[in-house]
Amino acid sequence: MKREYQFTLARTDRIYIIVLVVFLLSWELIKYAIPRSELNESLEINKAMSMEKEDYFKDNIRNDKTTSKKGVTKKPRRFPSNEAEIRSSDIPVPVNIMEATPDELKSIGFDAYVAGNLKRYMEAGGVIKDEKDVLKIYGMDSAKWGSVAPYVLFPEIKTGTTATPVERTFDPNRYLPKRILDLNTAAAIDLDSLPGIGPVFADRIISLRNSLGGFLHVDQIQSCYGIPSETIEKITPLLTIREPVKPKNVNEIDWKKFYHPYLDKKFNPMIIAYKNNHGPFKTSGDFRKVFPPDTTWCDRLLPYLTFEETN
Amino acid sequence: MINLRNSPFLWLALLLLLAYSVVEHYDFIPTGTGLWILFSVFILCALATSVIYKPGKQIVATLFLSICILLAGVFRHAEIEKENFPKDDIAQGGKSEAIVSVISVLKKKTNSLTLHCKVLESHIENANQQIPFTDKFILVRIKGSQYKRFYPQDILNIQGWLFPISAPKNPHAFDLRQYYKTLGIRHQISCADSTIFLHPNQGYSFMRLSAKWQAQLCDIITQHTSTDVAQMSNALVFGERSSMDEEIRDAFANSGAMHVLSVSGMHMAIIYSMLYLMLGAPGSGALPRRMIRLCFYALSILIYVGLTGASPAVWRAGLMIILFIVGKAMGWNTQIWNLLGFAAFVMLWSNPFIWHNIGFQLSFLAMAGILLFAKPIIRYYSFRQIILQRIWEITSVSIAAQIFIIPIILHQFYQLPLTFALSSLVAMPASYIIIFGALLNIILSPLHLDWLWQWYDQLSHFFLFLMKWMAGLNPDMNFSMPFYAQLWLMMSALSFACGLLYQWSNGRKLALLFSLTGLLTLCWHRTRQWTTSDLTVYHNYSGLVMDIIMDGRCISLQDSMVSDQHVEFSAGGNRVFRDVIHVDPLDSNKIYTRADRYLSHAGFYSSALSLWIWNGKEIPPMANPRASYLLIDHCPDIIDLKNYLQTNNHSVIILPVHLERKTKKEIIECLQVSEIKFWDIDADGYFSIPL
């Protein structure tokens, strides 16, 4: 009986508790029926709500010389405080990320590691055009970017302006080259003028072209390492193939040393062995027979080869 | 004795807590048919509770009532979850413009401010679309060096970068997401001070008025005292800790008196005692007089709650004291455990996530410890001299408060200041003097009594000096206490409490058994730790950390410039499982062997294994010693890596989290094609190999 007394409640108490809990649960439904305050309504309408920046700071910056409401001037502080340090500290000024020194980058919030990587990237020819380029830098992530974004200016924004970021407008015609480029003959400097392509990518395109022996169609630049798909979409309309590929004679190639991106290394000895056993290749069909299990092994390579007998 | 009859709200609060923890553990959100079924069960149980039961069967009514409360907890949790987080969180960040209302200032530093804000309107720009942001609350981080003040209900227009709060980089790091979830925050927006505009129409509320008043009172103290004293006084008296120096904070934390800086029950008790001296006992006199006195008490306490920022601990104390005073004024029988339970019930109901808040946990557990153990400990010994008796009472209260909170502190902070008894002995009376002195000086400040301020400043400096001295007495220690040892300690405290409350003879024996088990677990863990030698690689928020542990002693290397405190904060759980004897930045010019007991940027070599770090600049040696483990710290050109791996395909590759996703994907594809073993730290949170 005593134990039951300790672990039970009177019926009245039980009912009170249930009523309280039901009321608390119901309150969530009731409160939605209460009309919203005027302040909230005015906010929905008035979106262009800004005070002048100077007025805002005047009202909010703490000032030793302000008088109290009763007109009594407050005494100056007796003890030094750290406010002098606060006021004397440098105000971060937005910097042009392409022109900033590592110290300037650090001053706006980049850590030393990322600042160093940024400078090395730009010294190597990299170009930072927007947030996505910044996020590609090693050591950078969206959380860190969030803390420095307000102080970063990209190359198209003029420096020396006030801290208020200028709304950026993208001019699609700004970077358009004056002519359509032939992918097989364009120099690095020509490729550099394409939107989204800098010296590094231009060099990569050229080295791919040299290793392939020329591009057969514009889509082949997709296999170039590191070029984002958005950039490829942008530059594809600006490229063409005019100069045809000069195919190599399959029977004159030194297969021991031959390298091609479309040829797996394991086929080189097979080609040599086939040639030694069957003589020179006369047609593409002969070439396919090097690897009978899969005759499509050389489909991509064949446009770069001719089958002429050597004298 | 605690039972359901005299402390029903304690039992309600515990049921709510159980409901919330189960819902969160199983991630259960009732919707659709499930919701209607639960609601029907709730109605049936509520009806069953109100039935008259015969003696001997009334326990059934308790059971039905318990089910009702549990279900109410489930509904409440679902409601708040839906209200705060209507949609899934954003996967990636984006530019955002938002109109927010300030709720409180969380942190204030020289060049930055962190605000807890309510979102009134917000959207994110994503792929040239504007997607509305639907969360109720958001964290606003403002970068700027101009000193600004924001008050509750300030309405701001912000333009910045919105992104989710980062997950911890390793399994033992402090999870900021969990902490901010108690405030209803999942995302943050970073902006510069120049992109913020203040709405001219501000609301009026009690919190806004009290915040403005707090700022004015803190200004008065700051104007008349030195910087250190001003920071300490503002924290101690008004709970204004956002601009406190870390040196002062560490002095209190390391000496074991951090609870003095957090406004909580102790401060409320001091305010109550001051009011008691001025107004008299709340229950004395005729009814009209008692009512007037009650109004003064309640108003003063409410104002103080508002002045100090209304943290969970302050709310708990304020609610308890107000209810206690109401009971006394009305002549009711006030059960202290019921008051504690009521405060917990109210706080848990209003915010179902508050139980994760460490301040909430410590506040209630400390109060429970004091209520249970303070008097028995005081009665255990008595002194004839009144001063010694008072000292013993203060020490007993301090010890009683620590009994339940020691396991929590060890679990959260991995530290136990040994001087907590001594520091509490000094801090508690000193706090009384400082609070009283500060309030007196503020009241008398119109009279310009500078000498009073000078006395106050000198006294506070002496108190600070004592705290710093006591902090220095404690060795720099992190206790690597495994989970089971913490559990045994808590079970020991609970058993002892049950034995004391219910006069259960086996309770004390069980408490002793649990304590011994905890001690043995700790000893076994330390012994095992001292025989451990391994190499562990994990991340903190800024970069990679590499710990070489040899016979339990650890040399820690970091690849980014971070302060020790930052590393401790972001990798605390990992660091406490080793005694760190040396911290070094990774140096590209050094090469060490195991005999030198250091690791370098180039690599680490022992007779059993070698770990080399690939940074794209220096290629690890191809000859002896060969790399048995290769950590890809940086991969500027994957072709170089592929060329290296063609001749060193026996290495196990370690992939850190900070590798760019596209590069990492290409490396993984290459490793899979070549059938080379690799370890992705992102998957497990860390990499560890025995030495």
Describe this structure in words.
- The complex is a heterodimer of chains A (311) and B (691).
- Chain A is mainly alpha-helical and 311 residues long.
- Among the domains of chain A are: 2-31; 95-153; 181-240, Photosystem II 12 kDa extrinsic protein (DNA polymerase, domain 1, Orthogonal Bundle); 248-306.
- In chain A, 39% of the residues lie in helices and 4% in strands.
- Chain A has helices at 2-6, 11-30, 38-45, 53-60, 83-88, 102-107, 112-123, 131-135, 142-148, 188-192, 199-212, 229-235, 267-278, 284-288; strands spanning 95-96, 152-153, 181-182, 239-240, 248-249, 305-306.
- Chain A has a two-stranded parallel ribbon with strand order 1-2. In chain A, strands 3-4 form a two-stranded parallel ribbon. Chain A has a two-stranded parallel sheet with strand order 5-6.
- Mean pLDDT of chain A is 71; it is low at 41-91 and 157-178.
- With 691 residues, chain B is of the alpha/beta class.
- Chain B has 5 domains: 8-84; 94-203, OB fold (Dihydrolipoamide Acetyltransferase, E2P) (Beta Barrel), CATH 2.40.50; 209-473, no CATH class; 483-530; 534-690, no CATH class.
- Helices cover 54% and strands 16% of the residues of chain B.
- Chain B has a 6-stranded mixed beta sheet with strand order 12-13-14-15-16-17.
- In chain B, α19 (564-575) links the parallel β10 (553-558) and β11.
- The radius of gyration of chain B is 29 Å and the shape is globular.
- Mean pLDDT of chain B is 79; it is low at 588-602.
- Chains A and B meet through α1, α2, α3, α4 and α5 of A and α3, β5, β6, α5 and α16 of B.
